[in-house]
Design a protein that fits this description.
single chain, about 130 residues, alpha+beta, OB fold (Dihydrolipoamide Acetyltransferase, E2P), three-stranded antiparallel beta sheet
């Protein structure tokens, strides 16, 4: 399993990349996609949708289960990975790259400080 050091993580198995411009890119971790198995569908709320931290912003459907996606920070969706509509298995094959899900404009960048580091997340999932 991979745990890129430059990312932040949530206890709900999302990763967050600070883009340095008040936005973050969000996806699910390598651990999460492995636990879910083959992903067959990703449903995301539309651009412009606003969320509080920990609000559900979408779902990931695998062959045997459906899992909710939780906003790691409060803010507004400013971008969606359109490639996932036709190719949801990108989440399995490249969870930290081509399998990203949404971009958020953060309402409160200080919320990043309370997220897990790569080492903390690695310790949590064992």
């Amino acid at each position: 399993m991979k745990f890129p050091e430059e990312l932040k993580y949530t206890k709900e198995h999302e990763w967050i990349r600070d883009n340095g411009d008040g936005t973050v890119t969000v996806g699910i971790t390598d651990f999460a996609q492995g636990e879910l198995g083959d992903i067959v569908f990703v449903e995301l709320e539309p651009e412009g949708s606003e969320f509080g931290r920990d609000d559900v912003f979408g779902t990931v459907e695998a062959v045997k289960t459906v899992s909710e996606l939780f906003a790691p920070v409060s803010g507004e969706i400013t971008g969606l990975n359109q490639a996932l509509e036709d190719d949801p298995e990108l989440v399995n094959s490249d969870p930290y790259g081509e399998g990203w899900m949404v971009k958020f404009k953060m309402a409160d960048p200080s919320e990043l400080d309370s997220l897990l580091s790569a080492d903390d997340y690695k310790g949590m999932v064992g």
